[in-house]
Write a structure and sequence with these properties.
Length: about 350
Amino acid sequence: MKTQTMKALTFKRYGKSPEIGVADVPRPTLKANELLVHVHAASVNPVDNMILTGVFKPVLHFQLPATLGSDLAGVVTEVGSGVTRFKPGDNVFANIFDLGTGAIAEFAVVPEKLAALKPANLDFVQAASIPMVGLTSWQALKERANLRAGQKVFIPAGSGGIGTFAIQLAKHLGAKVGTTTSTGNVELVRSLGADEVVDYRKQEFEKVLRGYDAVLGTIRGDAIEKSLGILKPGGTIVSLVGPLDTAFARARRLNFVLEFVFGLMSRKIMRLAKKRDVTYSFLFARPDGAQLAEIGKLIEAERIQPVIDKVFPFEQAKEALAYLAQGHAKGKVVIKMR
């Protein structure tokens, strides 16, 4: 029997020339607990570009060449023998991060527990923009920071993919939100609910903001250390950009060497945080269909709306990653598969 193939966006190696391109790959086969989804749209996230550099090689395991992407929306075409909650023809959205497989392809395999029904009021492009930013914001703000009504949270880069979603979720939770953005995006972040907006071209946030309960670390460089100064004692920093820490290594059951290395990487921020009586942790969002279904309900109730900057056709998927890497997207960058 001839193996069926499909088109997928793949990369061949880590580093400066990853050789990204659309290639023919074998169509995935299903296990009992999985769905085969005909992908209509997939979105790209900063982590996709980071994976290409090889920085996460010790943590994420791909067999090269590998398919890129983890956010998708599409139609179930086939279900495994053990699947009970979905049937062929269902419209779903999902995040399949860290499974060693990719979403920017004609078909994707999704474990049943990671899928959720697509919100009825979104099209496939809008739905594909949600999973990674939605789950990351949910796990950072609700689980880690335990954000409650009346508290203050700082979400820098408010006009980006994570920022546009996290601001809306924080407002839904009853929090006050501070953010940074450039002059041109001040109106956008205010419309999403930001209360204190710092134009980073004119002011430094650490000199303006005070008395915050939580910080969502979304910007590389020294922004994490600077944000220590705006937190109240007892506050929390949840970083999405590093440094990686020992707790992360343990949670992923990584070896002793990596645990030691991540401990060294985060030693300075841990010391500074302790001195100011705040907690620091690094977060790698995990796929979760039940949380995605909860997020879907908020979207259907119009408490949260997707913000999309640009949609690329599948043939230009490589350009979508390059565009995202420039760091100027307002909201999400999505690839329309068909």
